[in-house]
Design a protein that fits this description.
The protein is mostly helical and 287 residues long. It has twelve helices and no strands. The protein has one domain. α1 runs antiparallel to α3, α4 packs antiparallel against α11 and α5 packs antiparallel against α10. The longest helix has 39 residues.
């Protein structure tokens, strides 16, 4: 399957999952405590609500598409592209959930989208240059006189400062759990290799490898914690606020992709991530 189609389906299923979960949790009401009685009531509600199940199924599909994407592409490329869903998220939250989207939220969402565009544009330019360079090197290979320069590695450090409230504490829990899940998942998928969606036998073989990989298991556990934080947050704030705010987790994931997964950081990626960070800073003013 084409990588662009995989990314489009990934963004779409992720956003739809968020919208259906938000629809279900708005019917439940605010989680005001974490006592056993409230926790039991929440679990029973989650298991019985059709909107929650629809959201979970959508997010499972998004997870499978995400695993496929990171088996083919760099994590530091897939994550910012996935944040393009924040624009669609805001539109659907406004049109389906009747959420009020302030000008600052629209501005932050569009700022994040600009960051995604910068990354995508820089990657397409890099791919074009890489193809041209490959042709050039092939022509010069027989002469055996060329030498390659080592690429420059870049690092980015952003330290978002926010006032800690119940909502932001939940967001930080979600962000750290999500980022850890991203790193473990990507590390596991690097071990498994590229997932093919065209061959049934190869696809089943890949899925068996995924189910038995310990790093994937740890990543799923991290995502489980992230999911619990997310459904609690949906009772405290609008999804059009929560999802863009979680983009700050990309900073930790990108740093992990660079230092743990040894992915190269290009100037285009770092510029796009910085713009996404600006979007998160703007939306923090609305929380």
């Amino acid at each position: 399957m084409n990588n662009i189609l995989i990314l489009v389906l990934l963004v779409t299923t992720q956003v739809l999952g968020d919208i259906w979960l938000s629809q279900g949790m708005k019917m439940f009401g605010e989680v005001k405590s974490f006592s056993l009685s409230v926790g039991g009531e929440l679990i029973v509600y989650v298991l019985a609500n059709p909107w929650i199940w629809l959201g979970v199924v959508s997010l499972i599909l998004a997870l499978l598409l995400y695993l496929t994407a990171i088996s083919r592409l760099d994590l530091s490329y897939v994550l910012p592209i996935r944040s393009l869903g924040y624009v669609l998220n805001a539109i659907l939250a406004w049109s389906i959930l009747d959420e009020h989207i302030s000008y600052l939220r629209w501005l932050s969402t569009l700022t994040i989208a600009v960051g995604v565009f910068i990354i995508t544009w820089s990657e397409s330019k890099k791919l074009s240059k890489t193809n041209n360079l490959s042709k050039f090197l092939e022509q010069k290979r027989k002469a055996n006189w060329w030498k390659l320069k080592r690429p420059i590695n870049f690092s980015l450090f952003l330290f978002p400062g926010t006032l800690i409230s119940k909502t932001w504490l939940g967001l930080l829990t979600l962000v750290f759990a999500d980022s850890a899940g991203d790193i473990f998942m990507a590390k596991g998928m690097k071990q498994i290799g590229k997932v093919s969606l065209l061959s049934r036998s190869k696809m089943l073989k890949s899925f068996r490898s995924i189910l038995t990989n310990p790093l994937i298991g740890v990543g799923i556990a991290c995502y489980g914690l992230s999911f619990l934080a997310f459904i609690c947050l949906l009772t405290w704030a609008d999804v059009s606020f929560i999802r863009p705010a979680t983009a700050m987790g990309y900073v930790f994931s990108i740093l992990g992709a660079h230092y743990i997964l040894k992915e190269k950081m290009t100037l285009g990626r770092l510029t796009g991530i910085a713009v996404i960070g600006m979007g998160v800073g703007i939306i923090s003013l609305t929380g």
